[in-house]
Amino acid sequence: MTAPPGRRERKKAATRQKIADTALRLFLERGYDPVGIRDVAAEADVAVTTVFSHFASKEALVFAQDENFEHRLVQAVTVEPLIPALRHEISAMVRHCAARDRVPLRRMIGSSPALRDYENAMLLRYAESLATAITAEVDRSPTACRAIARFVIDAYAIARDATEPEAALEETFRMIEAAWDALDFG
């Protein structure tokens, strides 16, 4: 059993969340490009170095849940059966990112080349982490695991942007399940 986080860890997490919330509010109020790291630090009442100790870049401030999503995807690989476990995690990600209150954020990301590039790189990183985890867990070729991981991450992007996210997820995961089942590695 994991011990609950200590005071220091809770304080760090609270500071990180405060910075992320402040940045997102400022970006949505003023626009992404006009707001600088100094603005975020001042508004959050922390030093610029504190912002950078929690977030590697300005773009990372927009994707504060990034590490949590990646961790959950990798952890889902240990659950049987694999594809339904991944579908469950992708569905949770889609619900989070496609929620009505996230529309202004999605619009901001869509209008910023820097944020789109960051998100694309982030999704590629998810796919690589997921492929590594799948390869370590199952008896399939690394190529097959990498392809399935990419399909799973693409399912997220397709469903997140779809008019009917759940229907898009259902259709895409039927194809992923069929591809996984079709792999013959007896």
Automatic annotation (TrEMBL):
SUPFAM superfamilies: Homeodomain-like. Residues 36-55 bind DNA. One of its GO terms (molecular function) is DNA-binding transcription factor activity. Signal peptide: none annotated. Residues 13-73 form the HTH tetR-type domain. InterPro entries: Homeodomain-like_sf, HTH-type_TetR-like_transc_reg, HTH_TetR. Keywords: DNA-binding, Transcription, Transcription regulation. It holds the Pfam family TetR_N. This is TetR/AcrR family transcriptional regulator. It comes from Amycolatopsis iheyensis.
